[in-house]
Design a protein that fits this description.
By secondary structure, this protein is α/β, with parallel strands linked by helices. 21% of the residues lie in helices and 15% in strands. The chain has 6 helices and 10 strands. Strand 1 and strand 2 form a beta hairpin. Helix 5 crosses helix 6. It is globular and about 35 Å long.
Length: 239
């Protein structure tokens, strides 16, 4: 779950995902063909997204259920992690920066969306949402979307200092439903976190890979008691 925290000049501005009623939760999103990492394929929620007219970022075109920037850099250059698809968030939902020059990158913060994968990305593309994360991982198959470049500051932790020093990774699911925490999700996310840690020299331990609930001042519980931290940290370390 996200909570935005803008720079000091703008103050704290919550932008959490709305809580879904437990009885209304959909099944995890469908599989992603391995041969097509960008753009993401047709998603079961595409028609409902079109009907609802969710706001998209400026200059974006709806492709495969996601708003993928049209006429911008190719997937190979737009993403920081080679396995990710580029699904850019609205520029109103993060702070442009030049990390690690402007701020060191020292932490990874783990979130759970409390939304579907597709709706999470659509929220990030809504300029009124005031929150986003760098990456979103899909439950069913571990597909990864990058929404904010790593050199920019995503508003995900509810703490401006932690936002400036961290990479935020969202995971499709609900904190009280462990069925969303699939093997595919764990393995894909752990590989992503390991790559981030290697890139910035972040120790691969629980002092530097945090849950959202561990961020000072956080009022969120994600990733919650059903997230297997022992398994996750072992996977990040290649064990």
């Amino acid at each position: 779950m996200l909570r935005a925290n803008r720079p000091q000049r703008s103050g704290t501005h919550p932008g959490t995902h709305p809580e879904a009623h437990p009885d209304a939760r959909p099944a995890p999103s469908g599989p992603l063909p391995a041969a097509a990492p960008h753009p993401l394929p047709e998603d079961p929620d595409r028609r409902s997204l079109l009907r609802r007219g969710l706001a998209l970022g400026a200059g974006a075109a709806l492709t495969g259920g996601l708003a993928v920037a049209a006429g911008t850099a190719s997937a190979a250059t737009a993403v920081d992690y080679p396995g990710a698809a580029w699904a850019p968030a609205s520029t109103a939902n993060y702070t442009a920066a030049n990390r690690p020059s402007t701020y060191p990158v020292e932490l990874v913060v783990i979130h759970v969306t409390q939304e579907t994968f597709t709706d999470t990305i659509s929220l990030f593309q809504d300029p009124e949402h005031a929150a986003t994360a760098h990456y979103v991982v899909r439950s069913a198959d571990g597909a990864i979307a990058q929404c904010v470049r790593e050199h920019d500051v995503a508003w995900h932790a509810g703490n401006w200092d932690y936002n400036t020093r961290s990479i935020g990774i969202e995971h499709e699911g609900w904190v009280d439903d462990p069925s969303y925490f699939t093997t595919a999700l764990y393995h894909a996310s752990a590989a992503l976190t390991a790559a981030v840690c290697d890139k910035y020299g972040i120790p691969k331990d629980r002092d530097h890979i945090l849950g959202h609930s561990q961020v000072p001042g956080a009022d969120h519980t994600d990733p919650g008691p059903n997230w297997d931290w022992v398994r996750y940290i072992r996977l990040v370390n290649g064990v």
